[in-house]
Specification:
By secondary structure, the protein is mostly helical. It contains three helices and no strands.
């Protein structure tokens, strides 16, 4: 099994650094980034850490860093 990061993983790391998302939460972003936006979680307004809005912002920024699909 390879430890090489995919372009999406690298984009998530870069976007997480921009937003300040700690390393231990970054694995929560990939399932969001690979789902259609209409299925992304919403804020439940209960003070979750991290808030779904933060995870979605990281996903949005990460996807913007990837080249457009052919």
């Amino acid at each position: 099994m390879s430890d090489a990061k995919t372009p999406l993983d690298e984009a998530i790391d870069a976007a997480s650094d921009e937003v300040g998302l700690p390393t231990w939460y970054r694995s929560c972003v990939k399932p969001i980034a690979t789902a259609p936006p209409e299925r992304w979680p919403r804020c439940c307004d209960s003070g979750c850490e991290p808030c779904n809005l933060v995870l979605c912002e990281v996903a949005r920024r990460a996807l913007a860093k990837l080249p457009p699909a052919p």
